[in-house]
Write a structure and sequence with these properties.
181 residues; alpha+beta; Cyclic Phosphodiesterase, Chain: A; four-stranded antiparallel beta sheet; 3 helices; binds adenosine-2'-monophosphate
Length: 181
Amino acid sequence: MVRLFFAIWPPAATAQALERWAEGARRETGGRTIRAAAVHLTLAFLGETPAQRIAAAIGAARRVRAVPHRLPLEEAGHWAHNRILWAGPREIPAALEALAQSLAAELARDGFALEQRRFAAHVTVLRKARAPHRLPPLPALEWPVEEFSLVRSTLDAAGSRYDVVERFPLSAKSGENSFFP
Ligand code: 2AM
């Protein structure tokens, strides 16, 4: 069995800025900041999956049709139920919602049982966080979404390690980004 999920990864500078911001917020919340290399936004969580199903997950993801877009991160918050501090968009961009929906539909067609709860686009930056009284303002963050990835998560002494199994580029709508002289 392997622990799998689909996610998008931010540019390194954005991930580093989020880690720095979380270090500041940690004075309020305690807990453990997510290191920059591990910062991501989960699109679909498969959980423990038989290794022989990896090919089916890749096949489903290759059928996804979604367009590149930008992901604004304008808001931060704390969830009491899982004690995470997160950053996310004020409103989920339509293209991101469409990407998550298309992926969920293609996975369902291949028999992957995903949770039915609504997609809550968020980036976890701190775990085991107390509710903050006040958070430092988020910096300006650039996140062009041009691909998504199937990722394997392995638990070790240092926490979760993430390894990209396969990447799936998003392609612009036909005609939009093409030029034939
Ligand atoms: P979290 O950051 O909100 O905890 C790898 O574990 C990724 O999968 C994390 O982004 C984590 O979200 C997400 N994840 C873990 N368990 C999940 C679940 N049961 N449903 C949806 N996402 C989950």
